[in-house]
Amino acid sequence: MFAKHHNLDPAEIAQADKRHVLHPWSDLKTMHTEDPLVMAEAKGIHISDAEGNRYIDGIGGMWCVQVGYGREELIETMAEQARRLCYYTPFGAMANVPAAQLAQALAARAPGDLNTVSFATSGSGAVDSAIRFAHFYFNCLDQPSKRQVIVRMDSYHGSTYLTASMNGKRRDWSQFDYARELVHFLPSVNAFRRPKGQSLEDFANEKVADLEAMILELGPENVACFVAEPIQASGGVIVPPEMYLPRCLEICRKYDVLYISDEVVTAFGRLGHIFASKDVFGITPDIITCAKGLTSGYIPMGATIYSDRLIKAISGENAVDHPYFTNGFTYSGHPVAAAVALKNLEILEGDGILEQVRDTGPYFQAGLQKLRELPIVGDVRGMGLMACVECVVRKIGAEPGEADMAVAARVDAHAQERGLILRPFESLCILSPPLIVTKEDIDRIISILRDSLIATQNDLIAEGIWSPPARG
Ligand code: PLP
């Protein structure tokens, strides 16, 4: 056991955390009282806490540990690069070997003419840079009024001031301030929530029309960009209707609105391809943002990849006076992170992991679909190795439509007891396992999830707060 081996007292660690760490999305009511789950070590698809309990990591860290934990090649690469050159400034015309090679490798894999890369240290930084670029670009073209940003409800784009302002998950809107004057939300594209009787085709047409209507309402001369995750990940793994994304791209082109594809989750193999925009959804956006799986979570890194068309319009002979792109970070293109990302690409492609996901992904989705037979399950959706099981629990005595929003936390607690970690969000149980999961691992994940859903149903019935709906 890790804690014993390292002579650590898990209770002391938990105490230090509760007293001193302000976590992302911390519940301030319980931050000093609720014991954290202290993770201590991991290998392959398994993670162990400081008490020695072992779990299947059903969420791949946070949608990011693509190639699994403890890969010696990545660890060695890190050490080797740190020994050779641990860091040097990326500002101005300063380059380092792995960052230049990585930018070239990303350009070779990105669709169309997306050939220029700026590096960040997170997904938020990558998206923030994309929006800053959009504003910079239109300012350079003497169109300074083009600055409004269009996003969608249920989206998640990050946690900087600007990207947090672009998040469309209502529960995330808290006591913070937001740059609301800059950001506009389209209705959710979650087909599960479409009005009863509306066909999928009509729903898709309506969602596309929503985008055009908003551009026209704001005035195309005022809109800089549309930002969209190909599949809305943390908002509930919302797979858009067929042809929705290509049609949105057409509309953006029509009104000279930049299309920014936020691939922080969908890139690097989660859908069986390095980038999903073109290979899965058939679109070549103007800008792609990515992070997470870029380094399989071994070290922080994000990247924003820009179309040559945009760069050409504002650089070289087209550059304006004072043409400095004053955006970037001390650790942009960090050599150790870039070396890890290069090695990670080599593993994803060289070990056949992309092909594996194209085989295990459909198997995973088909297995999860069988959970629909449980009364607590309202919807099962996903693609590749990202999925969501949405529970629908109407409390006894509650108004129709009023749901028990904490139900996924109950499922997660049961799953943890059985050795699986999933990601609960309101009534959503989200899964995004490491890409190296085998079909056998998938069977085990689904079997634990099924047992946990049944245990949750039984608890709710026993507590007298829910009864299964009659099925007709
Ligand atoms: N964009 C998407 C689609 C994300 O899912 C996330 C994080 O979950 C981000 C951006 C922000 O990335 P980070 O947490 O690395 O800043």
List the helices and strands and how they pair.
Layout: H1 2-5, H2 10-20, E1 39-43, E2 46-49, E3 54-57, H3 60-63, H4 72-84, H5 97-109, E4 114-120, H6 123-140, E5 148-152, H7 161-164, E6 183-186, H8 200-218, E7 223-228, H9 244-254, E8 258-262, H10 276-279, E9 287-290, E10 302-307, H11 308-314, H12 335-350, H13 353-369, E11 377-383, E12 386-391, H14 407-417, E13 420-421, E14 423-425, E15 428-431, H15 439-462
Parallel strand pairs: 3-13, 5-6, 5-7, 7-8, 8-9
Antiparallel strand pairs: 1-2, 2-3, 4-10, 9-10, 11-12, 12-15, 14-15
Helix pairs in contact: 4-12, 5-12, 8-9, 13-15, 14-15
The structure holds pyridoxal-5'-phosphate.
Keywords: Aminotransferase, Pyridoxal phosphate, Transferase
Pfam families: Aminotran_3 (PF00202)
Family: Belongs to the class-III pyridoxal-phosphate-dependent aminotransferase family.
Note down, in words, how this protein is organized:
Belongs to the class-III pyridoxal-phosphate-dependent aminotransferase family. This is Aminotransferase. Strands 4-10-9-8-7-5-6 form a seven-stranded mixed β-sheet, with helices on both faces. A four-stranded mixed β-sheet has the order 1-2-3-13. 37% of the residues lie in helices and 15% in strands. It is built from 15 helices and 15 strands. Pyridoxal-5'-phosphate binds at residues 122-124, 127, 156-159, 229, 233-234, 262, 264-265, 291.
